[in-house]
Specification:
Rossmann fold, alpha/beta, eight-stranded parallel β-sheet, single chain, three-stranded mixed β-sheet, 44% helix, binds 2-amino-3-ketobutyric acid, UDP-galactose 4-epimerase, domain 1
């Protein structure tokens, strides 16, 4: 069994990724890390957890050596909205943090570095409908620029040092877990507010179409790529998506279950960011090279989110 170290493990993705990894790979093979103290959910699962600021290259190396790690899953990242509020913080965590993970993987000759990219790596000059895997990438957010850096440096280390870098361009990832700091977060908060208050003021305009995927598909794509045989991969980074929708379409779908739900729109700086991102992704490269096949269509996502958020809040929506 391989041993995995996960950075940024208590973020929205980590909160589901870590339990899924415990089940898939065994508790003794997973080391979760993050800047804060261990979350209670991880304590209950008896997760091996260490505090680590990814900018601390010596701390990172010590953990990699002490636990004899084979693969890093580098999820620590400041997301798009927080990044625009604090570009200096985004720069130090996203650029320095990724560089530390990359260099540690090279120096310690680890087996693989998986680090997610994002739809944010694209920008206003990218063809935004059915965006191809290989295309123009001129993002305008600091988060997007850091993801292009991640992709290009990963490619460079693969070419120069044969480092096994792999990456997925995650779209908005949907789960009942509370998100933080992203532009696609509206598509989760809308469920919280619909169930709690029957109204939601959306920070994106009604017509902003973005690609999204359900968390279980996000985890499936991550495991599938990490475990894909090297000889199948012609690329290092892949578009993956499950569906695309606008706030208006999502609000109408929620209204079918909560008829008195009302949405209003007050677009802010996150609307400007979102309008530079793809409306939909072409994920055929992932399908061809390692068999990517998402399970969650839009309708199934809506009922799963209503059920999951309602359970989390302890408030029935029916
Ligand atoms: C964000 O909105 O910043 C993230 C992303 C699309 O990478 N969810």
């Amino acid at each position: 069994m391989k041993k995995y170290l996960v950075t940024g493990s208590y973020g929205q993705i980590g909160m589901d990724l870590i339990p899924a990894m415990l089940e898939r790979y065994g508790k003794e093979n997973i080391v979760a890390t993050g800047r804060k103290k261990i979350p209670k959910e991880f304590k209950e699962l008896d997760v091996i957890y260490n505090r680590l600021d990814i900018r601390d290259q010596y701390g990172l190396r010590r953990l990699l050596v002490d636990y004899d790690i084979d693969i890093i899953i580098h999820n620590a990242s400041v997301l798009s909205a927080t990044g625009e509020r604090n570009p200096q913080l985004a720069h130090s965590i996203n650029f320095e943090g990724f560089y530390n993970a990359l260099e540690a993987t090279r120096e310690l000759k680890l087996e693989q570095l998986f680090a997610p990219s994002s739809i944010a790596a694209f920008g206003p000059t990218t063809p935004l409908d059915n965006t191809p895997n290989t295309t123009i990438m001129e993002p305008t957010s600091i988060y997007g620029i850091s993801k292009v850096y991640t992709e290009l440096m990963g490619n460079y280390y693969k070419q120069k040092y044969d480092l096994n870098f792999r990456s997925l361009r995650y779209p908005g990832v949907l789960s009942p877990e509370e998100p933080g700091g992203g532009t696609t977060d509206y598509a989760i908060w809308i469920f919280y507010e619909a169930i709690k208050n029957k109204k939601y003021e959306c920070f994106l305009g009604p017509d902003v179409e973005l690609p999204m995927m359900m968390m279980s598909d996000c985890l499936k794509s991550t495991f599938d790529l990490i475990e894909a045989p090297e000889e199948k991969l012609k690329h290092r980074t892949f578009n993956v998506t499950g569906m695309s929708f606008t706030p208006e379409v999502l609000a109408n779908a929620i209204k079918e279950y909560i008829p008195d739900f009302e949405i209003t729109y007050k677009p802010d700086f996150r609307d400007d960011i979102a309008r530079t991102w793809p409306h939909s992704l072409d994920d055929s490269t992932a399908r061809e090279e390692w068999g990517w096949d998402p399970e969650y269509p839009f309708d199934k996502m809506v009922t799963a989110m209503l059920d999951g958020v309602s359970e989390k809040l302890g408030i029935p929506y029916k």
